[in-house]
Design a protein that fits this description.
The complex is a heterodimer of chains A (1205) and B (498). With 1205 residues, chain A is α/β, with parallel strands linked by helices. Chain A is 28% helix and 16% strand. Chain A contains 37 helices and 39 strands. Chain A has an eight-stranded mixed sheet with strand order 6-5-24-23-22-7-8-21. Chain A is globular. With 498 residues, chain B is α+β, with helices and mostly antiparallel strands. In chain B, the strands form seven sheets. In chain B, strands 1, 12, 13, 14, 15 and 18 form a six-stranded mixed sheet that branches. A two-stranded antiparallel sheet of chain B has the order 2-7. In chain B, helix 15 crosses helix 16. Chain B is globular and about 70 Å long. Classes of the chains: A alpha/beta (1205), B alpha+beta (498). Chains A and B meet through strand 1, helix 1, strand 4, helix 10 and strand 11 of A and helix 1, strand 5, helix 4, strand 8 and helix 8 of B.
């Protein structure tokens, strides 16, 4: 051993300086990454000799309780690769324009004597020239241009489009503001000041869980990850925590060591399965069946055989379970559950204000009670009754409601319960439920409780007549443990055991069971049914609104904490409004013409009542109905120019609103969504920033290429809607290439940039100031410039500021005077619009009067001055001061703070007024922090004053201790700061509490923003009844036949049909990072096609062989990753790919470059989510509306011998 | 007794989430440069799997580490007196580029610079070595998450201890599983790499045991690459020198954990001081395989033992190091709780990085296509764990199954103990029974729980403050001079050549 010497002598080790010099650095700067990962991690960026060299996680999170693991470190393998981008060959260093367009532009400008607007007109209206640059999209040929030249063309396109078609033909897409709020606000503010359109993202990404609005009236609210540590039983459903919640996963792992049980539901052996006590390899998309059976067991054993007191009390106090439902007799004499019994139906309560929106429960002595806290109480004149105390709102009498009528029923009635298990038909069952008779103004009706209906729906027999399952082993009736086996592939015994352990844990711990749920199940067509079944397992066991309990849905970084102060800045409400906020799923389904390739939705969606107007037909027709009724937005608005409509009215001395209504009524004017292929209705100019709109999020990507861009594509699908549509206009031939101009703001050459006309270089996350928040933790983080924007890059805020400036300058000549615009907006949640439509009535069919804001959209005339866009952009307008701030209808005053702010912050002065300056990115950050209740304790106190006034309960204790807390940008830079408790969010962060959703509702008796003010297990809207989704139910995932994905492609010998899934991956956040050398190297140099070894064997495919996956929508060429981890019959391409990196040509379709993962998908909308004007089922941007689902998709896979480049 | 202080480590594999953040942190700082592209001083492997370089554990092929010869002498497997000189010029056991992977990049600039064409441009993969188009066939993490499992997971050398049937069923739904194995240099107390170097360029630092390759004196013979059984020394083809994990000594020297520790999002990494008896190393490494875990433990010295403290003082180890050794999380994991085990002790290098083996989900049954979970116990039962104990024993105890089983029982006991505290559904009798069976007290269970879940950075990383002024003085530059002049002057890269 003589040769292993330890060397102590320093003089022999001078060489060690070598590595010490590498570690030395000049500066460390705190920032984060804006990438919709939900991480919002605090990072330190190291700068050496003026170059960003590497990044490491910040570790200085304040510890809020030594009994909970703390948050350090946060940050993942992807985030730590960011520095690669900054100086990489993918970096966009300069403005670029495609050569084909640049040449046309320069020539046109020359011909039109330097008149940019005339030049733009000459290019876009000439079919040959238009084709020339549109068909060049995505095919290389970029040329560097100056900022000035790019801005001039953009400004010309803006002005021309506004004049020719109207400002609502300018659209912008940027996702997830929370990840970099100021950068999002940049383009959004510019567009809204122009009168343009912001497209939604959360629903389009299919991150929005519609069950959340359904049950809670909330977009999404969930626990911060530290709260998992309090959970005693965690089920993960469609969520791969270890892989996609990388910085948070340790809380789940650590909760196990504190004695929590973890059960993972996942068809593949996922990363998270590794830490599970039990892995349930459930068949993909069949989770509803499992959880319905779980609920069958819970209801039977914990609510019927024995009544667990905590569970029953919870249901009475916090859910709609006690509410009375009217049973309507159908033609066959069976009773069908219908609406809640309304105060308007009963003589004694008919005169109540908003009696249509107040419902009844029965108390223990059999008296009808109207519990406080319902929609009617929310919007009535008398305030203070909007709370969920168990009191009769009429006189304050306390009561205890009855969950079941079993012991006081006057009889039973045979009611019909739907069963869609076969995926196509309704094989309902008749089961008796206990009823009482109520005398209404229309005669006697039978009612029962929601809870009685739930028991019957789940097949829990209490000895009533009807078709009931004989027991857990009966597989002939839905929702028994044995019934579910055929769908899930999981044994009944496993379900029963799970349900018992779950409920027993909840009972012992007062509700500390939680479900972490995500995209794996939310991306199915019937996602809401999966979620509802899971949520019910929580509600039946009292787990929501509890620390350590609840539904934790993590899909997208939707939580923008300081929304109240950010919103007006982002959407220009400090100057005017309302904004034009469009739900992207409807927009893309219609405008990218995917509806034309679609058939009636009944194939995907069996319903209970095909005669209901919302339950049958073509999705496009339902979309048309939705915009007519004001349920969903519609931008572009009309088949005509909005300015012209106002001008016409004024010329005829008519009220513009009356004029538009009458023209809509006589149908000489239509909503654009009713005629999307009319060139007058096209969206024209498209801004994309902070997102990959053309690839990563483009469900039906190839249709985007075809219909928006007018360039090459690989779709071979056949148009087939003609026979099925009746309300939207069918054009036999449509013009391809709807978009005149596509501008992409980016720091890397991703697919969207590659396919855009103009690419503008933006500052990366290490080169700008911004703010970030998330629901995964309770801090708010800064982004800071570690180095100035590299090469010619500018921050998004600066980029849009300069576009605003160029546009305003051009407006001096072309739009010199103020102009009146006409703005429609839908009936909104959290406004009186949510009690507009108790029933569906279509004015266009003469079923009701056309009344704006009631039976159709809100309508308003708005004045725009295009010469002032820039000045307004950089100035915080007076509406901000005068209107107060707030969301969810809870407004707090800030006028005094605004006045004070002018004295000690930079200002803009013009036309004799002074405004807080928004010129610098950092000034915007400061304004947001200063005026938000989450970061300014004074405003949190004010917000609770408003809330207390509405509820009649004093909530001030939640904010009192924070009254003097203020966070500035510098504070956030010095150390992470925790968000304050406010009424805009439902959790509590005071002291050492970990944030858990709905604790305020449960503890403070603040209503959920729903019909009854309680958590809903029953939805009485007529469309839900018609769909058979009024009660939780099971609708299987689509089969190949109904998806029609392979109608043309077929399944030749040598190919295999697989269900195509795109879960979130390990080596990228959406498409970001996947193209970095780090992540490419740690994966396989390509985003592979994961498949089962036996499936691969059938086609002779070996690991790493080249394969092509195809369907009618498009094609992908990649390499196989053959793994035993993937079950047979499914395949993965992890979301999301770029089609730019190492992507060969398709050998089975035209020898064109293969596509990306979204080449194989298409948008499919479930029309049920289009309803509106009805309590929680009312529109909100990214809150309500159909989603861009994509799991119900099939592909064929074929082997490729040799790639072709 | 010859007391030495050693920076030592524990990786808690139950907490590892397989994210590879550690790998990138290291890459960014240390190996992001020409000649080092293929080096991953820190990598994370999916097990079962073959790892990086592929099948590195197979010493029949690579001949790393030590072996006991017939005379009960420890000998390097990679070389002996007769082939020593010959192997300097050609070493058939040394991994080549095929066993690692050929590093690649893409012609990214084509996306921006491509002239207008008839189809969309794409950035093709090219070799970082040749600059030519490359057909990517391997990478440093190729079988991540069971990618290519029929090829890679089935060829894991640790599966050799299982029967054919056991191996097959490991890839079926009832039994399929995986775990993660993050790896850095083990900074062994008996390093075969150091022993193998003909130039004497490798050494252990006396004060902390960090193993380094002197970049001035390395001549690029690569004997260390062959001799290291963990394949954690790499040859830099640009500088002609070998390089390896330096345990981020510039960070440790300034009171910061190594980059991979700092960035570990699973919070699995613990670092602390161990005291060991350098005189007992050789004899301990001669133990029979089944008792190697115990004999490795026997080398470690109790930092509370007055004799050890005196021995430390006699060897010039500062009281701060001894104090740190007494608070060492590594000591607790390895010696007090006996939860952490060395990786492949049969390589006999005395690795100073220890692993807590992971709990894995319970297995199931899948008769007639319907899957049933074995529900005999509330938590996953060790008897039904998806990965056979024998497999883990092959990794962490040279086949001693009891050593692994004991660790698993202790982890489960802690869970029962904590659940009983928080949820009233485990009986006191049951808790007592599982603790007794696991051989730990309630207090130890509480301590294990706290260190496993609640430990903050300064609980996980317990190192004494390093006083550099003395070393700097010894290196020929006075601290006073250094204050004003260190860092001045041109930095020269190590030059290639003999």
């Amino acid at each position: 051993m003589g040769w292993i010497q330890d060397i102590f002598a320093p003089e022999q080790r001078n060489w060690e300086e070598f590595y010490r010099n590498r570690w030395a650095h000049d500066k460390v700067v705190r920032t984060t990454h804006g990438v919709n990962c939900t991480g919002s991690c605090s990072w330190n960026v190291y700068v050496k000799q003026g170059i960003v060299t590497w990044e490491m996680q910040a570790l200085d999170y304040p510890t809020f309780d030594r009994s909970i693991p703390n948050y350090e470190p946060r940050g993942c393998q992807r985030g730590i690769s960011t520095s690669w981008y900054i100086y990489s060959p993918l970096r966009i260093k300069y403005p670029y324009m495609r050569g084909a367009l640049l040449d046309l532009w320069r020539e046109a400008k020359h011909q039109h004597k330097n008149d940019p607007v005339a030049a733009w007109q000459s290019i876009t209206t000439n079919p040959d020239l238009r084709k020339r640059y549109q068909q060049a999209r995505g095919k290389g040929g970029f040329r560097r241009v100056s900022w000035r030249e790019a801005q001039e063309l953009i400004a010309a396109a803006n002005i021309y489009t506004v004049k020719k078609y109207g400002p609502d033909r300018l659209v912008g897409f940027s996702p997830i503001p929370a990840m970099s709020m100021i950068s999002y606000a940049a383009g959004a503010r510019f567009l809204q000041l122009m009168g343009g359109v912001a497209l939604s993202f959360y629903d389009w990404y299919c991150d929005l869980p519609p069950a959340s609005p359904e049950v809670w009236g909330e977009q999404t609210d969930v626990a911060e990850s530290a709260d998992w540590y309090h959970s005693k039983f965690v089920a993960t459903v469609g969520s791969n925590v270890l892989m996609t919640r990388t910085p948070d996963a340790h809380f789940l792992v650590e909760a196990r060591h504190r004695g929590a049980k973890v059960v993972v539901f996942s068809p593949d052996f996922s990363q998270t399965s590794k830490i599970a006590d039990e892995w349930i390899p459930i068949n993909q998309g069949s989770d509803t069946a499992f959880w319905m059976a779980v609920n069958h067991v819970i209801l039977k054993e914990f609510h019927v055989d024995r009544q667990a007191p905590f569970f029953q009390q919870y249901l009475r106090e916090n859910t709609d379970a006690s509410f009375l439902v009217v049973l309507n007799q159908d033609k066959k004499g069976h009773y069908r559950p219908g609406s809640l019994l309304r105060a308007a139906q009963v003589a004694g309560t008919q005169a109540e204000e908003h009696a249509e929106w107040k419902s009844f429960v029965l108390d223990q002595s059999g008296v009808l009670r109207i519990p406080s806290g319902q929609m009617g109480h929310r919007w009535q004149k008398q305030k203070g009754q909007w709370n969920i105390k168990q009191e009769d709102a009429r006189d304050g009498t306390p009561f205890e409601s009855r969950l079941t009528l079993k012991d006081c029923a006057t009889g039973t009635a045979s009611a019909y319960f739907d069963d869609f298990s076969d995926g196509h038909t309704d094989q309902g069952r008749l089961r008796h439920v206990p009823v009482i008779e109520i005398e209404t103004v229309d005669g006697p009706v039978l009612v029962t409780t929601v809870f009685d209906l739930q028991l019957a729906q789940h097949g829990v027999n209490r000895g009533f007549e009807g078709a009931w399952p004989a027991g857990y082993g009966d597989d002939t009736h839905p929702f028994t443990p044995t019934w579910q086996e055929q769908y899930t592939g999981i044994k009944a015994a496993t379900v029963i055991n799970f349900a018992r352990q779950w409920a027993a844990t909840a009972e012992k711990t007062n509700g500390k069971c939680s479900i972490i749920i995500g995209a794996g199940v939310n991306h199915w067509y019937h996602n809401n049914l999966i979620y509802r079944a899971c949520i019910n397992a929580l509600l039946f066991c009292g787990c929501v609104g509890r620390s350590g309990g609840g539904l934790n849905h993590y899909v997208g970084q939707e939580k923008l904490a300081p929304q109240a102060s950010w919103g007006p800045i982002a959407f220009g409400a400090d100057w005017s409004g309302p904004p034009r906020l469009q739900n992207a799923p409807s927009f893309h389904y219609m405008h990218s013409d995917q509806w034309r390739y679609d058939r009636k939705f009944g194939e995907m969606c069996p319903v209970s009542d095909k005669h209901h107007p919302m339950a049958e037909g073509h999705t496009a027709d339902k979309q048309a109905l939705a915009v007519r009724c004001g349920w969903l937005p519609c931008y572009p608005q009309f088949t005509e120019h909005n300015f012209k409509l106002v001008r016409d009215a004024e010329e005829r001395q008519l009220d513009p609103v009356d004029h538009v209504v009458s023209r809509l009524k006589d149908r000489s004017l239509k909503f654009a969504m009713e005629d999307v292929d009319n060139p007058a209705c096209f969206p024209r100019v498209w801004y994309i920033w902070r997102g990959n709109a053309i690839q990563a999020s483009a469900k039906g990507h190839e249709y985007f290429l075809k219909h928006y861009l007018g360039t090459h594509h690989n779709s071979i699908a056949v148009e087939q809607a003609q026979e099925d549509v009746h309300e939207v206009t069918w054009h036999d031939k449509v013009e391809l290439g709807k978009m005149d101009l596509i501008v992409d703001v980016n720091f890397r050459m991703d697919t969207s940039a590659l396919y855009s006309d103009i690419v503008l270089p933006t500052a990366s996350w290490y080169e700008k100031d911004d703010l970030s928040s998330t629901d995964m933790h309770s801090f708010i983080h800064p982004l800071q410039a570690a180095v100035p924007p590299c090469w010619e890059a500018k921050s998004d805020w600066k980029i849009f500021q300069e576009i605003a400036k160029a546009t305003s300058e051009l407006a001096e000549k072309y739009l010199p005077h103020p102009i009146k615009d006409f703005v429609c907006s839908p009936l909104l949640h959290d406004t009186p619009g949510e009690i507009a439509q108790p029933r569906i009535r279509d004015w266009a069919k003469g079923e009701c009067e056309a009344i704006p804001g009631k039976t159709m959209p809100n309508m308003k005339v708005v004045e725009r001055d295009y010469t002032k866009i820039y000045q307004k952009f950089i100035s915080l307008g007076r509406n901000f001061r005068d209107n107060g701030l707030g969301i969810h209808g809870c407004i707090y005053p800030v006028d005094d703070l605004y006045d004070q702010y002018l004295l000690d912050h930079p200002v803009e002065a013009w036309e004799g007024e002074q405004y807080p300056s928004l010129r610098q990115d950092r000034s915007v950050c400061e304004a947001i922090l200063h005026f938000a209740a989450e970061t300014n304790g004074e405003l949190a106190c004010r917000a609770y004053e408003t809330e207390s006034h509405k509820t009649g309960i004093d909530h001030s204790h939640l904010a009192a201790a924070n009254r003097n807390v203020r966070y500035t940008f510098a504070d956030l830079c010095s150390q992470p700061r925790r968000l304050l408790t406010t009424p805009f969010w439902t959790g509590i962060t005071n002291g050492s509490r970990t944030y858990s959703a709905y604790c305020q509702n449960v503890e403070e008796r603040i209503p959920w923003r729903t019909l009854t003010g309680r958590q809903h297990t029953y939805f009485d809207h007529e469309a839900y009844v018609a769909y058979g989704e009024h009660l939780p139910t099971f609708k299987p995932r689509a089969d190949l036949r109904t998806t029609r994905d392979l109608d043309v492609t077929g399944a030749e010998p040598g190919s295999l049909v697989l269900n195509y899934l795109t879960p979130h991956g390990k080596w990228h956040i959406h498409s970001t990072f996947g193209d970095t050398l780090r992540m490419e190297t740690l994966s396989r140099g390509i985003e592979p096609f994961w498949m089962n070894e036996h499936d691969a064997g059938l086609l002779g495919i070996h690991d790493n062989d080249w394969v092509e996956a195809l369907n009618d929508h498009g094609t992908v060429v990649t390499r196989a990753c053959v793994s035993a981890r993937i079950p047979r019959g499914i395949c993965f391409i992890y979301h999301a790919t770029e089609r730019t990196i190492g992507n060969p040509k398709s050998q089975h379709r035209g020898n064109r470059r293969g596509g990306g993962h979204n080449s194989l998908t298409r948008a499919r909308l479930k029309p049920l989510f289009m309803i509106g004007g009805y309590a929680q089922f009312s529109y909100g941007f990214n809150y309500w509306g159909p989603q861009g689902v994509n799991r119900d998709t099939f592909v064929v896979v074929r082997k490729i011998d040799k790639p072709v480049w | 007794m010859n007391v030495r202080a050693h920076v030592s480590m524990v990786f808690h594999l139950d907490k590892c989430i397989g994210c590879h953040t550690c790998s990138v942190a290291c890459k960014n700082i240390w190996t992001d440069r020409p000649g080092a592209e293929y080096m991953w001083w820190n990598n994370v492997e999916t097990k079962p799997g073959t790892g990086y370089p592929t099948r590195w554990e197979d010493q029949l092929n690579y001949k790393g580490g030590w072996e006991l010869n017939d005379k009960r002498e420890l000998k390097l497997r990679s070389q002996n007196k007769s082939n020593y000189f010959q192997k300097l010029f050609y070493n058939p056991n040394q991994p080549g580029l095929d066993e690692y992977y050929e590093p690649w990049t893409y012609r990214y600039s084509d996306l921006i610079d491509a002239p207008e064409g008839h189809d969309q441009p794409t950035a093709r993969p090219i070799s970082q070595i040749t600059g030519e188009d490359i057909d990517i066939q391997a990478g440093p993490n190729w079988d991540d998450d069971l990618g290519g499992s029929p090829v890679y997971a089935e060829n894991d050398p640790n599966l050799d201890v299982l029967t054919e049937d056991e191996r097959r069923v490991l890839l079926e739904v009832e039994q399929i599983t995986m775990m993660y194995l993050p790896r850095i240099c083990n900074h062994c107390a008996n390093p075969s790499c150091v022993a193998s170097c003909p130039s004497g360029a490798l050494y252990k630092r006396g004060e902390d045991g960090i193993v380094l390759v002197n970049q001035d004196t390395c001549r690029g013979w690569r004997a260390c690459v062959a001799a290291c059984p963990y394949k954690k020394v790499y040859y830099n083809w640009k500088t002609g020198k070998s390089e390896k994990c330096i345990l981020c000594y510039p960070r440790i020297e300034t009171g910061q954990p190594p980059a991979c520790f700092h960035s570990c999002v699973g919070r699995i990494r613990y670092m602390g001081v161990l005291l060991y008896d350098a005189d007992r190393v050789e004899e301990a490494m001669k133990a029979p395989e089944e008792s190697l875990v115990e004999s490795q433990r026997s080398v470690l010295l109790d930092p509370f033992d007055p004799a050890v403290i005196a021995g430390a003082e006699a060897n010039g180890i500062s009281p701060k190091f001894v104090e740190a050794a007494q608070k060492s999380p590594v000591w607790n994991y390895v010696m007090k709780w006996k939860l952490a085990l060395p990786l492949h002790p049969e390589f006999r290098t005395l690795p100073m990085l220890y692993y807590v083996p992971p709990l894995l989900p319970v297995s199931g049954r899948a008769g007639d296509g319907i899957y049933e979970q074995n529900a005999s116990e509330f938590f996953s039962s060790l008897d039904n764990a998806r990965l056979p104990i024998r497999y883990l024993a092959s990794l962490f105890s040279a086949g001693n199954e009891k050593a692994v089983h004991d660790v698993m029982k202790r982890q489960m006991a802690v869970r029962y103990y904590k659940r009983a505290q928080d949820v009233d559904d485990v009986s006191t009798e049951k808790v007592r029974a599982v603790l007794r069976e696991a051989g730990i007290t309630e207090q130890e269970a509480e301590e294990i729980y706290r260190m496993t879940t609640l430990a903050q950075l300064n609980d996980r990383y317990v190192m004494p403050p390093i006083q550099r002024e003395e070393n700097i003085a010894g290196s020929g530059c006075s601290p006073e001079m250094c204050k004003g002049s260190c860092g001045l002057g041109a930095i020269t890269a190590p030059a290639r050549g003999l």
